[in-house]
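Predict structure. Input: Lytic murein transglycosylase, 403 residues.
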Amino acid sequence: MTRFILVVMCVFWPALAEAQDEGFADWLADFRPRLVESGASAGTVSAMLDGLEPDLSAIERDRDQPEFVRPLWQYLDIAASDLRVRNGADQMAARRGMLTTIENRFGVDYEILVAIWGLESSYGAIQGDRDVVRSLATLAWEGRRRSWAEAQLIAVGHMIDNGYARREELFGSWAGAMGQTQFIPETYLRRGADFDGDGRIDIWANVGDALSSSANLLSEAGWSQDAPVVVEVVLPEGFDLTSWNPSSARMTAEWSMRGITRADGEAWPADYLMQASRLNLPSGLRGPAFLTFPNFQALMRYNNSTSYGIGVWLLSQRFSGEFSIRGDWPEDDPPITRSQTLALQQGLIDLGYDPGAPDGMFGPNTRRALMSFQRDRGYAVDGYAGRIMYDQVMSAVAASAGQ
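Output follows.
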């Protein structure tokens, strides 16, 4: 049997590899004239595409959704670790003048920029070692995000022709993110900023250019200097969540009138009260609660992840000294896995709710469906997909099926 399998593999895998090579060659032949039409020079087109082969590991990474979801409290332990705090503090001490100049030029607090730098590349130490052109070409050929990947490749052509980067420098992540602050090519062209005025935006080796580019992105996303980003809060006993929508903002003064207080016990500053903020319960009602302000939404333009935004904020706060989240995390109620999310979505459908097509990804539609289930069944309407609520949905499905 083993010998038969080996024979089949010997026949099958070369044929599969040949089919893949032919398919990539077809895509390459189709894309090459469109890269030329975009304005890329003949030399740049040749440098980018001649001899290019697909990197199948990029497809594996793109399709792979880890089964287990890291709880936010574990993510934050890494994002704002003592080592990351120390290294960031050292960078700030060594580059205070440059950071102050960037802050004044773009109106973005430099502690936030250093925190982004720390999370994106460990202060430039880990920028990725993948050929960006090869990775993007592979993703374009694979097809799931073809339009996006081809647009990035066209942006790469403009980068090379404009002298912003040389072909041999274009290394980064498997998804095409580059440099010390991990910009994709289109974002680089739109938001990249030349700190030292040398005519080149070098986000790979020039820290000033990398951080100025991040500052420019946040500035254009609406960042307000010295304004709040996140405030940990405490909800009053019996706080009514039935009309709460995590995507809707209210004036902080209204949250205050409803009994929400700062977790540090301090009074609300007057300027905070006059700003709109959103109530965020990333680990449910039993975990820490936060009000997130417009600056947090600007961070979402950098990386649309609540965990990332809270991680950047927490790291930036820790640079100034001892700082921690005061609320207790529900470690007995971790977030559910991808396969459990898929089962949860199907269960909600079976119960008459609409989470959208089951895909194992816990997005806004699934959250709304879960909140409707919680509201109808008398649970706290926090939209948190932890193991406890998963069990409640599965029990309801079983009970419904047994009727």
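The beta strands are 130-131, 171-172, 230-234, 250-251, 261-262, 276-280, 289-292.
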